[in-house]
Amino acid sequence: MTQFPLAACAEMIWQDRPIDWRASRLKELGFGVGLWNWPDHDLAALEKTGATFTIMNGYLRGRLTDDDGAAELLATARETAQVGKRLGVQRLNLHGTGLGDGGLPVEPVEVVTGAMWLKARDTLSRVADMAEAEDVTFTLENLNLPVDHPGVPFGRAEDTLALVSSIDHPHLRLNLDLYHAQIGEGNLIELCRKCLPWIGEVQVADVPGRCEPGTGEVNFHGIAKALKAMGYAGPVGMEAFASGDPEAALHAFRNAFTV
Fold first, then answer.
1. Which of 12, 44, 163, 256 could form a disulfide with 213 if both were Cys (CB 3.0 to 4.6 A apart)?
2. CATH T-level fold of 6-256
3. Are 159 and 187 in contact (CB under 8 A)?
4. Under a CB-based contact definition with an 8 Å cutoff, are residues 84 and 78 in contact?
5. pLDDT band at 1 (very low <50, low <70, confident <90, very high)
């Protein structure tokens, strides 16, 4: 049996517990730890847990699509890279634009123009060069537009793949989120196959509901077998709420990705 390196988003489970307690418990259970925005947390307390931090939001503000937004994104990404190195975070995550309350874009985009595409590629190339200099890795995450993140540019996995593959830099990878892809695009196994050379992490939650594998329509065990067959051995992160007991949810996640 093969088990992928597994992690879970600490922000979404045991929400009544302090974040350092959640990180410690995930470590005890054998999982890496995903985080969102670092200013929300006591970094010293997280350091003391000794947990493996697999992914964290890699910027605080900014966007890919224009000069002012790109400057802000690069500045906050550079600041976040230092925090990432302090915690040993393996991947620092980006989106097409900054997200505000409820995951809605701070500045929604109705139409992504050709000029925006060119600017996004330029911005990401600069991020990749900075990441290489800092010896960190950034990922670009796809997001769904119909349910959770309307108005985010470059939300589809098709778009994030086009950007990351065109830059093709080892310090810029895909965070392929299969929850978002199922809502927005579907055909998940073939999507994994197309993205395979550039995947830095695969993230999962079931659809509908955004809870652990086994609570919705996605055959995650089948996806796990397909990932293994195509040679993927990288990390899989559960960015999902627990439908009931968090430890039962983590057990279901581990079972789905043990093949």
1. 256
2. TIM Barrel (3.20.20)
3. no
4. no
5. confident
